[in-house]
Amino acid sequence: MSTKIFSPELEAIGIIKKDEVLANHTTFKVGGPAAYFLETNDSEIIQKAIRIANKAGLKFAALGGGSNVLVSDQGFNGLIIKISSSRCDLIDTNKLDADAGTSLAKIIRTALSQNLTGLEFAIGIPGSFGGAIAGNAGTSGHGIAEYVESLKYVDKTGVLKICDKSQLDVSYRYTRFKYTPEDIIISAILILAPAQPIESQKLVKEAMEKRSWQPKGVWCAGCIFKNPANKSAGKLIDEAGLKGKTIGGAKISEEHGNFIINTGKAKAEDIIILISFIKQQIRDQFGVQLEEEVRYLGFN
Q1: Active site residue 223
Q2: How far apart are the first and last CA of the chain?
Q3: What global pTM score does this model have?
Q4: Do residues 162 and 189 lie in contact, with contact meaning Cβ atoms separated by under 8 Å?
Q5: Family per UniProt (predicted)?
Q6: Whose CB has fewer CB within 10 Å in the chain, the N or C terminal residue?
Q7: Closest by CA position to 213, among listed 199, 232, 196, 240
Q8: Is 163 a catalytic residue?
Q9: Does residue 124 lie within any of the structural domains?
Q10: Which of 88, 120, 163, 293 is catalytic?
Q11: Which tens digit of pLDDT belongs to each residue from 70-128?
Q12: Active-site option among 20, 120, 223, 295
């Protein structure tokens, strides 16, 4: 398909790339090329791009910080809109307004610098703010989405809309945006609480200690599976004796069973096969059906 499908306005400012390798935009470091690639957090540009893609019959999807996602080896035969920004503003004594493309780490730093509490549990979670909201990223019984007052998003028809917290459909590692990458979060407002410095520092220390056992300095997507009810996916994988299991270039972490590592030459196919193997082993040994937390992109 020719780039002529895109408006002269978009092409003129050079924001559309062709055949952009998505492995360069994911923490797993796997994934083939996107036919077309746009990096922005500008809602007007995103609206325009979606409308043009719809008119051309071109698939599109959002990509944030690239964690918690597995991209096909064949890539994505359509338009990837990478949400990228660094804006995070204090708009009231206890409210933050931030772009979806801002890193979650910056959101947390800003909250702490403004003596606001609530997000300490999320320290160490990689990825973007928008992606964290979509998947309700969290730990220790908390999720980012519980602090959202409202958010702006562009829907699959290219219309900018507002979603209140009551419309988010929040549950464990889920919001209504989890499996609808064509509905693109633009920004969100968080409501936090005034911090008691000593208590906040204690929560920060606890969060860092809980993440100390997670693999560091490796290519991975974060936790692969959701925790089953009253169980730990990582502990089940450990008890099944699967740590260190390798298929191709994909390996189950020796440090934590719920992490799959790209040892350097993994393909998405290796990771898919390893995920299926883990699910089969846990089902056979414990009668538990694991459910992926990671999102798939570009698979038929």
Answers
A1: yes
A2: 19
A3: 0.91
A4: no
A5: Belongs to the MurB family.
A6: C
A7: 232
A8: no
A9: yes
A10: 293
A11: 999 999 999 999 999 999 999 999 999 999 999 999 999 999 999 999 999 989 888 99
A12: 223
